[in-house]
Amino acid sequence: MPSRASASDMAQQGFTVLSAKAANGEVVHINDHVYVSMPWSDRDGSPYIIARILEFVSAGNAHKKGTNSRHVAKNELHVRLSLYYRPSDISGRPVSDFRQLLAAIHTLVEPVSVIRGKCYVRHKDKIENLIAYKQTPDHFYFSKFYDPYIKREYEVLRTASVNNIPPDVKAVLLRRYEYLLTEKEMVADLLDDYHSCAVCARWAAAQDTVRCELCRGFFHMACLTPPLSAKPAKGYSWACLGCTIQRRRDVESEKYRFVSNGGSAPPRVKAGKKERAAISDTPDVQFRGWPWRYFGLHTRAEDTLSEEDLIFPRAVTRVGPKYTANVLTWEEQQAAEAAKQDALRAHGPPADLPERGFDPDENGYATTLTVLSKPDPGLGPFMDAVARLALPVPPYDISRLDKGVHAYMTLGATAGMKRIKALKPADFDSLSWSAAEDATLEAELTKYGGLDAHAISKAVGKRPAEVVRYTFKWRNLRLKTENDLIRQHRKVHGAHRHNGKTLGPPALGKMRSRADSEASDEGSLYGAAHAAAQRLSCAACGTRASAVWWKCPRSVQGAAMCEPCGSNYRKYGVISFVKSDDAKQKKDVRRRKDTSGASTPVPVPRAACALCRRADKGLARCKTCTFSVHAACYGIVGGTAEWECELCANARAEEVNLDPRCVLCPADMSVPLALARKKKPADFDALAAMKRTEGCRWAHVLCAAVHDVAYAHPAALGPVEGIGSLPAHTWRGACDVCARADGAKVDCADCGARYHVACAWAAGHRVGLHMAARRGHSVRFRDEGGVMAPAVWCRSHGLEGRVVFELFDEADGQTALGVYAQAYKGVQGGFALLRKAQRLDRIHAEDREGWEEEREVVERACTACGVDVSPRWHQGLCHQCWFAAGKPAPPSVPAKRKAEAMDDVETKPVVNGRAVLV
């Protein structure tokens, strides 16, 4: 078998290529059905296209065949494909039978490298057992045709099963086409027995034939005397002359005295089921590569005998007085316009026509315009002269235009022109970066998925303002280069190119990877390193074990799909939670059932709550990601029938930060996640339950329960407020589990060891609510009363003699955390924005004097990272670098400032070098 390169050479030399090797190693032939897929960056995760190979063409002749493909290798072999549509592509709604396709007369020329594998497509009438056929992998069927121009579906009939056509026409159609396309209302007429005119005995086409209601005979409208000009209107019937005379005789002989109208007609016999054409495995008959043609309401049977007759579906011609206007000829239009101009010259404008800018009133015509200012008439010529000058920057440069207007308005035309001519390159505020800095910028844009000015400024050594300005300039230059390449019919390379319309949903601003390949699906797979570093779970079935991880399409919530689910989605266009379409898997399941004998089948275990780990009834299950919790554990208010967790709802609404990272936990969660994996495996655990914060970020339910924060709605356990008001010592010190200093920490209630709440839970330490009998607001839970407070204990400490409840212990439909939140974590005040402002005032009340003193400093830069923006400076270090180094704060504020106020300012959570309220 020749390779793709040799096959391309043969096509270049004019030979007919009958087969070629696809990217996956399979050999494909003409008339094979294949999966076709563009690179991942072009299709955005849409399913494979199913098509039939019409012919192989050389790269030089590809564009002559109407291709839309991009240029690949110069001698790349191309293939002309006949496409099939999926019903979901047409209607946009999900369908129950995802093995059904719609045929089409729609071709596309693409490189052979876009072929991903073989599949099998047959007509429904050529399948003996449709149920068994659909259970076979990679098998599809069709029974309808879709025309993308008329926007209508047609029925597909086998030519052998059509009876009501002239015998000579049927013989020709049988030799050329396997299928006929027709309207739905024509199916019964074509499958009926042969119809002939009762007058001329020739074939009676439905379009120009009427049927007698009494004798059921067919008559050409032109064969009648007098001829009929149109068929009877809807609701009326027609009777031939003989039947009409006989009916009149019957009426006169009083046969119809007690009989209703039409009683003499013979009883209609229900037509039996038509025999289907014999099923055979012979290849479909084709003519010029097409196995079907249109034969319906707008077809003349005699025209189909010609080889040049068009095979496309047709519609009613929109020609005639009902659809077209009577347009004057060009000469008549010129004569009418000349007569109108002559009349205006002879009589002048109407006397009552007001002047523009004036309206009539009781005093005559008065002006309605008040001129406030007029542009200087000399500014336009001056700027034109400036544009013609040879200056170091182009004429459209903003700084050049600004300096030109400023020079004219301040110095005048003559002196201003001298000033502009004397400008040097240093006078213009232009940005120019080196090639190395451009490469760094592009790499950072790909890394962060967009523009992050502060992060990129550290990498390139520029100010964030310069990064923002130059990024837009750089993108415009890249866009100009892409447009030039498009005009030259060349392929545009690069991950940041301006992509046109793709086969799937938009990319939502996310930068695409350079690793996308046209010859394989490598761009749609996660690498081994990425899969090992991330805890990937299948968005369809939830499994965490797979040899290959596919990237999720834009229309599916999640990051990855396992090998069976990802392959099924790309082949069949649906997310199947149970892979029941694979016959091999069904055989394996049936074999395992047979070996179990008469033993009782093992019941499927119920899903457990992610927080309390109880697997009982009444769990709320997210309709998107299958996250399961009790309503009391997670704080679900309202019904749970169509419930969606907050993370999935935000992924659709995009109201909160799309990075679900707890602001109370360390930035690096590898240690607690690794400890959590050692526990009993579960699809979701307590670290998957998160609530939004007032600063549009996220916090674990566990972390928010233990730390001294508040809930805007205690019954819903969120949104979380007051994280920025936590005491300073909460953010200090290192965690005894992960050894990281960032994040909020709590002390062990007995020994004083410091932990992140997530680290303590993952390491197996006790996290609960302590009930103590002391003065304060007391509550009751499980017949115990007292003041309830959260605490963390090392697992080595004994808790005998204490009343300690787990956070999600349940009693009377409430959890311990719910009782604690209702009693102690409510907020004071009615407006969330007002509460946030009050907390900010308390934090910064005594810092303003120090700010006034530091306002004299004009420019500073961190000696470690080079950033020039920081909420506070510490001996040459920005706040973020100082906080990461764990150094004590110098006494740089007046002595009268309280130590607590200084601590509160210095220990706020920092994001990109800025203190934020979370």
TrEMBL record:
Region (Disordered): 490-516
Composition bias, Basic residues: 490-500
Entries under PROSITE patterns matching the protein: BAH, ZF_PHD_1, ZF_PHD_2
Keywords: Metal-binding, Zinc, Zinc-finger
Domain BAH: 26-157
GO cellular component, one term: Lid2 complex
Biological process, per Gene Ontology: histone catabolic process
Domain annotation PHD-type: ranges: 194-246
Entries under Gene3D superfamilies matching the protein: 2.30.30.490, Zinc/RING finger domain, C3HC4 (zinc finger)
Classification via SMART domains: BAH (SM00439), PHD (SM00249)
GO molecular function: chromatin binding; ubiquitin-protein transferase activity; zinc ion binding
Stated name of the protein: BAH-domain-containing protein
